[in-house]
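EI: anyone free to look at a 303-residue chain?
SC: sure, send it
EI:
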Amino acid sequence: MEVSPNAYRPHRYLLPALLLPVLLLALAGCGDPAAPAAGGAGTGGAGDSGGAGESAPATPELEPHPDFTMTQAELEALTANAPRAARAAVAEKPQYFLELAAQLLALPSVQLRLVDKDHALPADAVPDDLVVLDRYADVLTLNRSGLSLRAALIPDLLAMVEAARQDGILLPISSTYRSYEYQAGLFERHVENLGEEQAARVSARPGTSQHQLGTALDFGSITLEFADTAAGEWLAAHARDYGFSMSYPDGYEELTGYSYEPWHFRWIGRTATGMETAFFDGLQQHMLEFWNEHEAELRRKLK
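SC: here you go
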């Protein structure tokens, strides 16, 4: 058989096909040997829209409450010096804490003013809305006439007295607002009878009595025995529901500066007793100390 002269010549399409892989390998070797592979170290990985070396913008820390420009970290710093239980409670429920704080910031500052042995009122501090309780003598149990309290607390007092009466309990009121001068005379009598050291455990020096605020009440016999009466037990269980807080509870003399007074309650309002109960173990002194120290900062952070 005669073989065509072109039979052993490479096909005109075969040579380019054989050379193509060689060319591609050569081109691959021309890249920057130091350049990292896509998605490797030094790049933003898949979907990176930034330039070389750029990182994605940081996500701003969330604020626990929309009414405050305060982050969780800032709130933790604010409560750093609070009792451990209070710090834990705020960390667990930051939104609720700040919600109560926002409501408290809307109140007159005097309602939560800290008055104790280290924080005194001036001699001329007199509430401008005192109401003589004799006008409510038909619904209140008054141990003497001439007692007076601030008008702001009267609705809560009447509501509390009504609730106690529905439970068959009377709440006899024995002492309310006291002027600076009245407290000075009372403390002096205690000093004469007990000596100054003992007097300071059971009576306030003038200017340091909560009674001067016009929002503190003494109920019943003003003795330790009051704690075991029906009225004393009812108040211990329910007074906070109406905005009244026991100022000097049993076992906390080192904290409050005064021995146990189961008859002495200060009205701070229902929102404040809610915060006291939820975040400060029901201790008025802890809550008012915290508020006295941090009210201004919370107010600055309120939108």
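EI: The radius of gyration is 37 Å.
SC: 👍
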